[in-house]
């Protein structure tokens, strides 16, 4: 689909920059957009120019968020601050504004915490949007559904004429895949997580985790029954296995689309939603 071609081009550009700390000095006065994605297993920091071209991308593994909630505020602030400092050094500018994201349906103080982390890292928090909506911005999706598979939850948003008409978020994500892997091989959770990230022996590992992925597909099926929509896109770091999309298609009996580097789609979309912020 054409909608994937542009998204994949952006993903490729961001992947080339990710954690490379490539210096490219930005002219004084040029505006940029900053996105901060507080994930379950990592925190991602993305900077774009006004035309949404990636300028900087970096991440650090962090145990700061669980099931979509910030559980280690101090670590989150420290990581975001380090990533901000790296970006400023590479780009030669001060970053003063950023946007963040939350799982769909998050309300109250849990929503405010994301903005508080950004502000404690020395930036004004411009917007806090839900994660599938951020992904839809990258896909320029007007009609269809986005499933964002995070570390702790699976989030679903349905779009009609560019507007969100239905959202849901349920436990079951990458962390659950890790727990199954750890139990099967009898290894510590930390070791299982490292193996999952490295995707060593990915076919063997995925066969062990397939029931968890099928549960995610069942969650998706139930919510799509309530609000039917096509096409269906899958994003999120936990979905990076090559067999993930095929499992969803087999279970749901419908076409499923996935951009390259699905782990970077939401961070890119968060940055795209952010207003220009440096001076």
TrEMBL record:
InterPro entries per record: ATPase_NBD, EutJ, FtsA/MreB
SUPFAM superfamilies referenced in this protein's UniProt entry, alphabetically: Actin-like ATPase domain
Domain of life where this protein originates: Bacteria
Protein name stated in the entry: Ethanolamine utilization protein EutJ
Originating species: Listeria swaminathanii
Taxonomic lineage of the native organism: Bacteria, Bacillati, Bacillota, Bacilli, Bacillales
Gene: eutJ
